Structures are given as structure tokens and as C-alpha cells.
Amino acid sequence: MSTRLDWISRPAGPLRGELRVPGDKSISHRALMLAALAEGRSRIEGFLEGEDTRATAAVLQQLGARISAPADGVRVVDGVGLHGLHAAEQPLDCGNAGTGMRLLAGLLAGQGFDSMLVGDASLSRRPMRRVIDPLAAMGARIDSRDGLPPLHIHGGLGLCGVRIDTPVASAQVKSAILLAGLYAKGTTGVREPQPTRDYTERMLAAFGWPITFGPGWARLEGGHRLRAADARIPGDFSSAAFFIVAACVTPGSDLVLREVGLNPRRTGLLDVLRAMGADIVIEHLAEQGGEPVGNLRVCHAPLRGIEVPVALVADMIDECPALFVAAARAQGRTVLRGAAELRVKESDRIAVMAAGLRRLGLAVEERLDGAVIEGGALRGGEVDSCGDHRCAMSFALTGLVAEAPVRIRDCANVATSFPGFLDSARAIGMIVAMEPATNEALA
Ligand code: S3P
Q: How far is residue 122's CA from residue 412's CA, in Å, rounded to a whole number?
């Protein structure tokens, strides 16, 4: 478990230079899982060396997959085949990772043995019925603590393909169903209320599994095989998002983010920031391993508040904390709606971001499914990330553009998705440093 530590972020800028952010978290989880179930040796490059993805690697190793790390950001996986995993002796610890736990729940539901999935305090509060119910409809049996982890997944039950309309737009739910579908008799189909990231679908195809899919739907049949494949994972758009917003709001900035994954189901923030007046140009757009990848050049430009189109929210769900900061520095009011999912992420991100910005002097009205943020001057002060990596990194941006330093509490979990964040931030001109945690109550 991570120890508590705080950050102090100080006014700075302009931000200049070039960065490559770490590999995509969503793709890193999936590449490990499919490589473990494939026949043969897969090499994964650009793997995210974060706590979340390392937890998934450790779980797969406990289940019998052979995974080595010959270099930083590289994993070589000797797959055991679709039916080659074995029962683990200990509970499988997914750490802080909702993606790890929900996808593994689908994958393990089709095994011939029982498994127990556990997580840290934050993950233990996150809703799991959204995967338990559809998997149960396929014939799985998963015991939980009233819909919360730990999950006891019963094996050996024999799954049947069904057609499922998911009530929430969630790539994790869709992926859990598709992974269970690999083991199911017949056809498994998923339809979503709004299209979500399609990495599982793309990667299944890359590993040789016949699958048909389009925005918001996917269909596959059980009983095929996965063949080993090599993967080069692009930079994580969600990690790039902090620096995109940082450059947008800091006068004089001119920043290039290299080799960022630009899957259209991830880049809603670009559309929203551009509608707010941002100056962002995509350069060297190319395809890499079936994914669009490009450089982003971001220059400072004055932002104005907007009503965020609800249709874009699913495509920027992980970027909403950073959007709060862009909105804080925009002229006028920004309205975010249709984002209730933010309340069940690593923290209640609406509450955490609204509380933090208010502490820095802004008027923020919380809504059940979003917030109304009045842009303005940020004074310095102290905010609490509540152990949420994305809130911590977003608050680091407030210090950059505030009138005085901002202390951010509880930042250790940034290592789950972006272990080198402080070095990257300092390399482009931010002034942000670790501080021993304080235990005083927030005034
Ligand atoms: C993810 C899907 C999203 C996202 C999460 C990663 C994935 O979650 O917020 O960070 O890799 O499938 P939901 O499926 O809960 O929307």
C-alpha cells in the first residue's frame, strides 16, 4: 500500500519543450491479458510501468502466465493458451485498478477454477454489479459484498453467449462481457448506450480472434484461439491531458506531446478545448498497431466557458478532472452534464474537484451529474485529492496558474497511472515537488 504524501505546486511558466507520456493504461492491461491467454510469445513495448498495470501482471503470473520484464516499458509474455491458466493459491490483488478487476472478472468467469479478486480501499468501494449482472446472465456466479469487492468468482460453470444491452456506457463492462464470451458457447453480443473505447475489440482482432464491432456494439463467438502478437502501446491520452490543459492555461506556453494515442473514443477533450478557444494542432498523424497516434502541439490561448456537449462526455470521461481546471481559467461559465459516472471513479471526482476549486476561491456549483464552474482567479491554498491520481495531477495545474502555491494532499496514487509525472512536469517548466504529508485537518 502506498504511503501518504503531498505535493506543492507553485506558480510558473511558460511551459515549453517536448514530452512523451507513458504508455496507455487501458491498452497495457488488455495487452497483458490477451497475451497471457494466447498461444506463443508476445512482446509488448511501451507498456505502462504503473502500479495498476503491474498489479494485473502480478495477477496473471499468479494464475500461471509467464511474464518477464527485460527492460523498462517492455514485457515478454509466454501465453498459456485459452485453457492454460490455473487456480491461484492467494487472493488476486488488483490494487487501485477498476479496469484490472472488472476485466479479470470476465476473464475468470470462464475458467474451470474459483478465484478471489480483491483491491485497495478505493477499489473496495467501487460498484461491481455492473459486471456481476451481465456475467450472471451468461451463466457465471460471482459473490460480492453487496455489489462491492472482494469478488469470489466460481469456476467450472460453463458460460452461454447472450446478447446484452449494457445500462452504463462503460468499456470495462463491455470488455468483461467480451472476455467471458471467449469461453461461452455460441455468440456473445454487447450494445452500449453510448460508444466507449474499443481497445478490447481491436486487440482481440490483432490476436487473431474473429470479432465484428462498430461504435457502441461488438459481437464474437466462443471457441476460437488467440495467437501471440507483438504490441507497441502509444502514449496515454489521459496522461497527456494534464499537460495539454497546462499549456492551454499558461501564458506563453508552446508544448509538443509526442506519440499520443488518438483513438476517437478518447479524444473528446480536444474537441471541448478547441470549442473553448484552445490552440491545439495534431502533427504526424499515423497508424501504429491499429491505433491512430500523433504528436500534439499545444500553445497557450485564452479560453472561454462553454456548455460541454453531453455526447462528448463518454469520450473524455477520464479527462473531466483536467477539464475542471481549464474551466477554472476560462472566461465565463462552463457547464458539465451527463457525467454522473465521475462519482464512481477512484474517488467521487465531481465532489473532489468542486471542493478543491472552491478552496482556491472559485464559485463551483455541484450537480448530481456534473458541475457549473465560473472561471476566475485562483488564489493559493490547500486542496485534497482524496487519493485519486487524476485529481492530484489536475490540482497540480492549479498551482501553476494560481496567485500563490497550492498544497495538494494525498498524491501517492499518481504512481498507479503516471509514475514519472513530477519529472515530466518539471522538464517542461512546472515547479512542483513532493512534501511530507500533513495530518492537520483542512481549515
Ligand atoms: C477504462 C474505461 C473507463 C475509464 C477507465 C479505463 C478501460 O472506465 O474511466 O479509466 O480501460 O476500459 P468505465 O468503463 O468505468 O467507464
A: 13
Query: By the 8 A CB rule, do 26 and 199 touch?
Result: yes
* DSSP helix/strand/coil, 388: coil
For residue 3, the model assigns a pLDDT of 67
56 lines ligand 1 (CB under 6 A): no
**Residue 161 and residue 221 in contact, taking contact as beta carbons nearer than 8 Å:** yes
Q: Is the CB of 317 under 6 A from ligand 1?
A: yes
Q: Which atom of ligand 1 is nearest to the CA of 344?
A: 15
Decide: 222 and 185 in contact? Cβ < 8 Å: yes
Q: Pick the atom of ligand 1 nearest to 25's CA.
A: 11
pTM of the predicted model, to two decimals? 0.97
Cα radius of gyration (the chain): 21
Q: What are phi and psi of 187, to 5 degrees?
A: -100, 135
Q: Sheet containing 141-145: which strands, arranged edge to edge?
A: 92-93, 115-118, 148-154, 141-145
CB of 320 within 6 A of ligand 1: the answer is: no
> Is there an atom of ligand 1 within 6 Å of 417 CB?
no
Residue with CA closest to ligand 1 atom 4: 318
354-370 average pLDDT score = 98
Q: pLDDT tens digits for 379-438?
A: 999 999 999 999 999 999 999 999 999 999 999 999 999 999 999 999 999 999 999 887
CA nearest to 175, candidates 135, 145, 209: 135
Residue ranges of E strands in 54-161 = 66-71, 74-80, 92-93, 115-118, 141-145, 148-154
Please check the confidence at residue 322 and state whether its pLDDT lies above 50. yes
26 lines ligand 1 (CB under 6 A): yes
Copy the grid coordinates of residue 340.
454522473
Going by alpha carbons, the residue nearest to atom 15 of ligand 1 is 170
Report, at the CATH architecture level, how domain 25-232 is classified.
Answer: Alpha-beta prism (3.65)
Residue nearest to atom 11 of ligand 1 (CA): 26
**CA separation for the pair 421, 215 (Å, rounded):** 32
Catalytic residue among 24, 236, 318, 388: 318
Main-chain phi, psi angles of 342, to 5 degrees = -60, -25
CATH architecture of 6-23+234-435: Alpha-beta prism (3.65)
Nearest CA to ligand 1 atom 9: 318
Active site (annotated) includes residue 318: yes
For the chain, give every domain's residue range: 6-23+234-435, 25-232
